Amino acid sequence: MISDGSLLLVEVLIDEKFYPIGGMKYTKISLNNKVVEQNNINSQWRELFAGEKSAEISLKGIVTRSKAEEFIHYLSLSGEKSKYKIIFDGGVNIEGDFFINFYQRSGTVNEEEEYFMTLISSGSLNIIK
Q1: Fewest Cβ atoms nearer than 10 Å: which of 15, 41, 54, 116?
Q2: Closest CA to 119 of 72, 68, 71, 62
Q3: What SS3 class is residue 115?
């Protein structure tokens, strides 16, 4: 369940089960749809077609040492892609493969450790209503 004020919930697939990435305090998603333009010599109007699509997700939060976070740490080191589920508050979800493009953890003594990461899509994304 998405808490009040949250844009989305992100889960990562581990051993055939999705686990939520916990401790998120900041989320941002960019859905990019490049269009292809085609000019018809017999018409003055241009026509646009769907082209390349991609998604980029930024997450920032408190490290909770969950199973999902341990797996994400592994993925950031290995460079492997993994399947993620993006759950929106409105009921439409996205599933697909993502790479961790950027991963950072930081903290100071006697304070919470934080993470920041960016995911970029790889291949087609499935839209689930």
Answers
A1: 41
A2: 72
A3: strand
Q: Please, is 84 exposed, middle or buried when counting C-beta atoms within 10 Å of its C-beta (0-12, 13-18, 19+)?
A: buried
Q: How many residues are listed for the chain in this entry?
A: 129
- Are 96 and 84 in contact by the 8 Å Cβ rule? The answer is yes
SS3 sequence, 43-89?
A: CCCEEEEEEEEEEEEEEEEECCCCHHHHHHHHHHHHCCCEEEEEEEC
Question: Which residue type occupies 112?
Answer: E
pLDDT value for 5: 46
Work out whether the CA dihedral 17, 21, 120, 75 comes out positive or negative.
negative
pLDDT at res. 117: 96
Look at the pTM and tell me if it is higher than 0.85: no
Low-confidence ranges of the chain (pLDDT < 70): 1-6
| φ and ψ of 42, to 5 deg | -90, 0
Cα(120)–Cα(100) distance, rounded to whole angstroms?
7
